Amino acid sequence: MAQTFFSTRTSRTIALFIIFVLGIGIRLYDLTDLPLDFHSTRQLLSAIKARGMYYSTRMDVATEYKSFAVQQWQFRASVEPEIFERVVAFTYQFTGEQVWIARIYSSAFWMIGTIFLFLLAKKLTNIDGAIASTAFYVFLPYAIIASRSFQPDPLMTMLIIIFLWAVVEWADKQTYQYAIIAGLFGGFAIFIKFVAAFFVISGGLGAVTSRTSIKEAIKNPQLYVMAILGIIPGAAYLIYGIFFTDYLSDQFGGRFIPTLFLSPLYYVGWLNMLNLVFGGFALMIALLGIFFYDDKNRRFILTLWLGYLIFGFYFNFHISTHDYYSLPLIPIAALSLAPLASFIFAKLSEITNSKFLHLSAFCLLLFGLLATTWNTRNILNATDYRPEEKMWQEIAQITDGYNVAGLTQDYGSRMAYFGWRSITSMPSYGDILYGTQRGSQADFEERFNEIISKKDLFLVTDFNDLNLQPFLQEKLTQYSIFAEGDGYVIYDVME
């Protein structure tokens, strides 16, 4: 048996304890800051929905606030089931509306996933590989920030990891217990977010084909139990949303744009997203780690990567523009580097053949985790978003009684959530670019006139986006300024 660096129970316990304590601690740092630090549009969508659910149950608030909160919840588009939002809204019953509650839940989801990632990595490699894989998953800077966000992705990622652990256990042990666990968690992952299907299907195929043949697998009734359990939740939601309520019928268009395959910008954009999530060096290490697996486990890991590639080719616009679409790749990359880490730790164990050297190496590893955690802490501490709430409340007071359109962050969600006002949003530069890629030829004058029709004021808070729209900049110079302040300008378009 190969020599391991974490050879004693004490060293393993200390290592895992440090990983979990630091991992939880950094995720709870700056807990009460506003959910604007990571994909604020998506986080505010969930925040608005949770608030609407919460206010719909309250009898002690003014009718106008209750009506607005519920209307905003029901007005906003829904693609995924509102499970996470309902959990947060239920918690509000005990805590009051504290949006940071979602940050605790998301962090908990990610850290629960850590447990099953450790178990899976240990099964595929050894204790050294499992600890390294777990540390990568927990302390990757992008993972720390993304796993705090109010959106279903951290929950989905946790469920995918539990499924992968269960399906590998099933492939090895062939028991109904693991078939049912895998089916339930795989099905729930797909139910939470349909994109999980790419990782659940690829993980299932990888586990089966790496341990037996398809011909033999299809003879096993346990496989059908697992498949049925995996299909039912998502299929039921899809059927209900399309054929019974019709609110899903328009939500799946525009995610696949065939012409992008001919554009170098698509591939560059995808690479940029991967670089943002991992960094080139970490991604290289993860890919190199695949070579250190034995044939059986390498087939399983490669199938997971193939699932991610198919996923990226299908959601080609989003994979090249939305970094969080690569979030489920983090546990796959963590598993990929496990055997390489195991190999390195084995060599390190040979070199550190005295207690002093071994302890020194352990301290250096701890220093690396602390340095990474501190750097991420500095990123979280760099911007305080709390003053924005006051700004939006100020804008809401100034524009009270007026009909407002505007170019603002998050399609007016900040005004809706913090200012309790609804505005009509001007398309962002990204929306215009997206429309162009889909063949839209909308005329600026026609679009602008349509938006400001029957509007009194035009609010601008997203000046970075305004700088990318010269036609809009020029158009707004024709109107007088109604009011302005730190972070906003309001134009009078009643003229």
Features:
globular; 24 helices; 5 strands; single chain; five-stranded mixed β-sheet; 3 domains; mainly alpha; 495 residues
SSE blueprint:
Elements: H1 9-27, H2 40-56, H3 63-75, H4 83-95, H5 101-124, H6 127-139, H7 141-146, H8 153-173, H9 176-192, H10 196-209, H11 214-217, H12 221-244, H13 264-277, H14 280-289, H15 295-314, H16 316-319, H17 329-351, H18 355-382, H19 386-398, E1 404-407, H20 413-418, E2 424-425, H21 429-437, H22 444-452, E3 457-460, H23 463-466, H24 470-476, E4 480-485, E5 488-492
Helix pairs in contact: 1-5, 1-6, 1-18, 2-3, 2-4, 5-6, 5-8, 5-17, 6-17, 8-9, 8-10, 9-12, 10-15, 14-17, 15-17
Account of the protein in words:
- The chain is mainly α and 495 residues long.
- Helix 2 crosses helix 3.
- The chain folds into three domains: 9-33 and 104-382, no CATH class; 40-99; 386-492, no CATH class.
- It contains 24 helices and five strands.
- The chain has a five-stranded mixed β-sheet with strand order 2-1-3-5-4.
- The termini are far apart.
